[in-house]
Amino acid sequence: RVVILANNGPGSGWTQTIVGSAPNGGDNHLGTRLSDLDRDGDLDIVSIGYDYPLYVHLWRNDAIVVNQPTPSITPTAKPGDANGDGKVDTADFAIWLTHYNQNTGNAHRDGDFNSSGKVDGIDYAIWLINFGK
User: In the predicted model, what is the mean pLDDT of residues 24-33?
Assistant: First the structure.
């Protein structure tokens, strides 16, 4: 299951929302991360299943938020563009695949598009969302 717990305020507990679950009701994921994959200013949810083949499950947060502060940092690299040519294409996928499941210190240049230090399925999801852009 992928569950979101929202805090209801001081001393008032949590509200649980299940956003995804295995067909049999059990757990079926290797990990879940929050990241702004589509660079729209809000967090999206990515979960990697251990079903075969390994599936990347993505829940985009497309909610409209009013009175949200505007970020002051502008990203310098295009998400998913490992070779820096300004396009997210199959050449970038090849770089991601070459370094898949490796620890890296080169971030985007090795396909670690979320700069987590490891090239993994979350980075693939970032590449996939931005492919062709």
Answer: 60
